[in-house]
């Protein structure tokens, strides 16, 4: 960015191949489910480019990927991941397991170590052992499995809230009890919705719409999911994991 | 994300474009400067540029508008340039930014449509396919750090469906019922949203035309790189039609009394 | 087949105007076990007979998924088929990458036909030793194509390739006019009847030696079908309900699904 002093002198403009398109994503793993969510606003600077640009994508019946950062890199990255999964399907006649997708993503990100995809990825879904899982990545591929993660514009607002509500950080359990290791689905969904409504209030780049994906492990019940409005089942096969999509409005200002 | 806490919550310093010479404003960059920046020869900057393109969805399809000016910096260099390009029978591509890059894109698209036509098998490229193709071209070029310096709108109507989407020199894409590039994104977009959002299925052709002309007028009053000579394209079930160049009546007498507009020196 | 003067180089015509190497390649297709393809207004299907080299060996793969909207059955050299099907998958994926559009089926088939043609004309190459039946679905509905090593590709209502495929063809020629309005189950029954014709005397179709590839909405016997009725291959136990619909050979002259007895001559 040239400073005001340099006006009048010939200036070199460098093409900056990156931009930052705002928004926030979030994923929480339960014992036998996983919830992955993102807002749908896409912005650049103070401009809202569109109020609906999805950041969360279904990869397989048991894996969902949320991408945040530079939108062009994001959509290209998702496209490439989907291609690799298609080749895996051709070769093995089944979907790639979640932990393998996680390692695939790390390899794909690191292969662009010196011209990175400017994208923060969060992968959510069900592991082969039936447990809910969340993997989070940095733009060059460092990753780990976690119980919950927020990324993007309002990461600094949401993550501390999750640390407190999911990991019970700075909370002491009532005498004689202990904090639960996993929360039930309806509580997780409330936390997700609250996170985004609050982030919308406090961050200009968050808002417009909320898109939540829920993946349920094989054989688990819907756990009160049917009580939510705008729930749509996206499951492709009748046996196995089930996937749902919930859409809600967020404030548009 | 900017990890430097003292930058948090501060206004972005993205407003710098002192002479408004470039229709695409400098993008926000709050990070560190590349230490080797001095040693690298950079690709380019736009030379002959077009300003805003506007587009909206309406009842029968999509309508798009752009003026006929191609500027050379602050010089109004070419005043009869068509910035709306029909592609096949269902699509129009409108461009702001570098006009030579846009001409290259036009030749790419024309070649593509000829190839598709020669297949003669009943399949054709619609607006969605053309937008995807352009996104790949634009993103591919930005990845070679050799961008096509444009912001493009792709509008179309095929098989009963309206299509309207954006792609720019970074490969960034999005879609909405109203879109505007360049200064239009700042000045016209709020007005377009107010007029169109929620009314996409109600607006008639006349109303859509009125909305776009009103916005072009606003832009002509405020954007120094715009021209009161423009064309409007509509894409409906009947195909593509682009108007002849036309202009609107404007009033400048009020300027006399306003410092900065008139001839006052003080 | 006899050796003669003009058969060692595929770029040399015989005095009769024939390319012997290309014709030998067509023979290679006939060595492979049979595959049958049929098409209705709503579905296109493939059926193939899998061979195994012995009791202890597994059955050879006869079908490949190319994309959600395209699948193939092969007869001939499996290794050549893998090369070509890989190429088809790449083409399909590049269409998705560049235009976000499923590749039109006719273009996909033409692309491999063009590849095969090059091998019949250029010095130092050999033709592919494999034939395909390709089923696909696009804006213009379901399709069935035959691809052969000579570099030709034609569209059909019904077709068979591979060993003893003429017997299957005879069956198909008899009934093809009724296929258009068939349900998926009826279409599969016809396909199985046609495929059965290619078997040797003492053999029968069973869940181990049969593959069925389907494009179009799910059948009542299927459980997990990709949304939109994308290509899937049925193998193993799930085939039993379909095999059960076959009319035993002796009486199969008038199968339950159709009453047409007319012998209709189909263009070769």
What does this molecule look like?
The complex is a heterotrimer of chains A (253), B (266) and C (268). With 253 residues, chain A is an alpha+beta fold. Chain A is built from four helices and 13 strands. Chain A has helices at residues 71-92, 98-110, 155-165, 185-202; strands at 24-29, 33-39, 42-44, 47-50, 56-60, 63-69, 119-126, 132-137, 143-146, 148-152, 209-216, 231-233, 242-249. In chain A, the strands form three sheets. Chain A has a six-stranded antiparallel beta sheet. Chain A has a five-stranded antiparallel beta sheet with strand order 5-6-7-8-9, covered by helices on one side. The radius of gyration of chain A is 19 Å and the shape is globular. Chain A starts with 23 loop residues before the first strand and ends with a strand. Mean pLDDT of chain A is 93; it is low at 1-11. Residues 15-27 of chain B have low confidence and may be disordered. Chain B contains four helices and 13 strands. The termini of chain B are far apart. Chain B has 266 residues and is α+β, with helices and mostly antiparallel strands. Chain B is globular and about 65 Å long. Chain C is of the alpha+beta class and 268 residues long. Chain C contains six helices and ten strands; from the N terminus they run αββββααββββααββα. In chain C, strand 3 and strand 4 (70-76) form a beta hairpin. In chain C, helix 4 (165-175) packs antiparallel against helix 5. Chain C is globular and about 55 Å long. Chains A and C meet through helix 1 of A and helix 2 of C. Chain C: Pfam families: Proteasome, Proteasome_A_N.
């Amino acid at each position: 960015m040239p400073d005001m002093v340099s006006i009048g002198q010939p200036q070199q403009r460098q093409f900056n191949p990156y931009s930052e398109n705002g928004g926030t994503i979030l994923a929480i793993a339960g014992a036998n489910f996983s919830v992955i969510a993102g807002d749908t606003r896409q912005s650049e600077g103070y401009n809202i480019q569109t109020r609906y640009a999805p950041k969360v994508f279904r990869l397989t019946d048991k894996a969902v990927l949320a991408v945040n950062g530079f939108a062009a890199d994001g959509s290209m990255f998702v496209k490439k991941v989907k291609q690799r999964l298609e080749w895996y399907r051709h070769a093995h006649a089944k979907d790639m397991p979640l932990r393998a997708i996680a390692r695939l993503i790390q390899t794909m990100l690191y292969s662009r170590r010196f011209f990175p995809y400017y994208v923060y990825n969060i992968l959510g879904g069900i592991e082969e052992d039936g447990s809910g899982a969340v993997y989070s990545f940095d733009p060059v591929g460092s990753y780990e499995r976690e119980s919950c993660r927020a990324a993007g514009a309002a990461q600094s607002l949401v993550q501390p809230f999750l640390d407190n509500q999911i990991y019970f950080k700075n909370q002491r359990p009532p005498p004689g009890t202990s904090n639960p290791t996993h929360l039930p689905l309806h509580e997780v969904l409330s936390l997700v919705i609250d996170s985004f409504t609050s982030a919308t209030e406090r961050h200009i780049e968050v808002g417009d719409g909320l898109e939540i994906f829920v993946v349920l492990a094989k054989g688990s019940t819907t756990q009160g999911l049917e009580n939510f409005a705008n729930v749509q089942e996206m499951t492709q096969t009748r046996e196995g994991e089930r996937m749902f999509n919930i859409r809600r409005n967020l404030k548009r200002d | 994300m900017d990890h430097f806490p003292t930058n948090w919550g501060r206004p972005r310093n993205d407003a710098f474009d002192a002479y408004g010479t470039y229709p695409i404003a400098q993008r926000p960059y709050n990070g560190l400067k590349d230490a080797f920046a001095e040693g690298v020869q950079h690709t380019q900057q736009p030379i002959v540029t077009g300003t805003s393109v506007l587009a909206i969805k309406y009842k029968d399809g999509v309508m798009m508008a752009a003026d006929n000016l191609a500027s050379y910096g602050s010089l109004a260099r070419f005043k009869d340039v068509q910035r709306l390009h029909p592609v096949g029978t269902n699509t129009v591509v409108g461009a702001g930014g570098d006009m030579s890059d846009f001409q290259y894109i036009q030749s790419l698209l024309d070649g593509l449509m000829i190839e598709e036509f020669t297949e003669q098998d009943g399949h054709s490229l619609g607006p969605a396919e053309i937008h995807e193709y352009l996104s790949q071209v634009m993103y591919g070029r930005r990845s070679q750090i050799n961008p096509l310096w444009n912001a493009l709108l792709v509008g179309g109507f095929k098989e009963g469906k309206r299509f309207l989407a954006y792609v720019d020199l970074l490969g960034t894409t999005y879609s909405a019922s109203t879109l505007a590039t360049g200064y239009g994104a700042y000045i016209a977009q709020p007005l377009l949203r107010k007029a169109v959002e929620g009314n996409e299925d109600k607006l008639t052709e006349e109303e859509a035309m009125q909305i776009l002309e009103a916005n072009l007028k606003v832009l002509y009053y405020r954007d120094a790189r715009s021209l009161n000579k423009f064309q409007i394209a509509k894409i409906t079930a009947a195909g593509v039609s682009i108007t002849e160049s036309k202009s609107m009546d404007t009033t400048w007498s009020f300027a006399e009394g306003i410092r900065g507009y008139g001839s006052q020196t003080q | 087949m006899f050796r003669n003067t003009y058969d060692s180089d595929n770029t040399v015509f015989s005095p009769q105007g024939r390319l012997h190497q290309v014709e030998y390649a067509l023979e290679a297709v006939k060595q492979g076990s049979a595959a049958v393809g049929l098409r209705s207004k709503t579905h296109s299907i493939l059926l193939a007979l899998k061979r195994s080299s012995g009791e202890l060996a597994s059955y050879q793969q006869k079908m490949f998924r190319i994309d959600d909207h395209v699948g193939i059955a092969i007869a001939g050299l499996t290794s050549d088929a893998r090369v070509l099907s890989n190429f088809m998958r790449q083409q399909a994926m590049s269409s998705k990458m560049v235009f976000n559009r499923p590749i039109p089926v006719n273009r996909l088939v033409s692309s491999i036909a063009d590849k095969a043609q090059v091998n019949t004309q250029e010095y130092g190459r050999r033709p592919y030793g494999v034939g395909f039946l390709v089923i696909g679905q696009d804006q213009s509905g379901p399709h069935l194509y035959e691809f052969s090593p000579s570099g030709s590709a034609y569209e059909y209502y019904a077709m068979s390739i591979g060993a003893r495929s003429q017997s299957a063809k005879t069956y198909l020629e008899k009934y093809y006019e009724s296929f258009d309005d068939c349900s998926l189950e009826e279409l599969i029954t016809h396909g199985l009847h046609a495929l059965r014709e290619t078997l040797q005397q003492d053999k029968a179709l069973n869940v181990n030696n049969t593959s069925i590839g389907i494009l179009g909405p799910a059948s009542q016997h299927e459980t997990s079908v990709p949304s939109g009725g994308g290509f899937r291959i049925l193998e193993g136990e799930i085939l039993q309900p379909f095999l059960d619909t076959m009319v035993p050979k002796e009486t199969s002259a008038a199968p339950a699904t159709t009453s047409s007895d007319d012998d209709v001559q189909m263009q070769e």
